[in-house]
Amino acid sequence: MGGPRTILVVDDDKNDVYLLQVAIEDAGLAHKLVHVPDGQQGIDYLAGKFPFTDRLRYPYPHLLLLDLKMPLVDGFDVLVFLRNGGLPSVPPVVVLSSSFLNDDIQKARSLGARDYIVKPSKFNEYIKLVQKLDRDWLRIPDAALFEESAGVAVAKVNKTKR
Q1: Rounded CA separation 74/123 (Å)
Q2: Who has the most CB within 10 Å: 21, 75, 115, 159?
Q3: What are the start-end ranges of the H helices in 65-122?
């Protein structure tokens, strides 16, 4: 089902990205985290725009972890871009946010987020989080991972997962 996968983390908090990286290592997983600090850079990375044109150096992600509250372009704007067919294929999007507001959760899901996870408050919860991401989203065969974008930003599998 594939070896190590690339996870694009779009989040303005470097501490959260660091905790994800350490949790991946502590969980014995070999997935690669790629980090960009705002939604515009996330869109540019996914679209392969400069400076992310070299796909050997900046591989297309198997999973997008998306924060909602960021400067410049926020996570909701990224979801709108993906939903509007801005890319030929879209990885599964999991929102990883500090917000536990029901309005944010419902809006993110209505815009195509496949899952919504509130950021953990303890490190051992980060390890459980990366294990869940691995189990639910990163063990999917490559051929089933992406859906052609026809204005829908969803993965082909786990459609009933909410």
Answers
A1: 25
A2: 75
A3: 75-83, 102-110
| Cβ–Cβ under 8 Å, residues 143 and 103 | no
Kindly provide the residue ranges of all beta strands, DSSP E only, lying in 84-159, ordered along the sequence. 89-90, 93-97, 115-118, 147-148
Give the domain ranges of the chain: 6-148
For the structural domain made of 6-148, what CATH number should be given?
Answer: 3.40.50.2300
The amino acid that residue 68 corresponds to is L
Beta bridge partners of 66: 10, 95
Across-strand partners of 27? none
CB-CB neighbours of 152 under 10 Å: 12
Render pLDDT for 61-75 as a digit per residue (tens, 0 to 9): 999 999 999 988 999
What's the farthest any 2 CA atoms get from each other in the chain? 39
d(CA 31, CA 122) in angstroms, rounded, equals 21
pTM equals 0.85
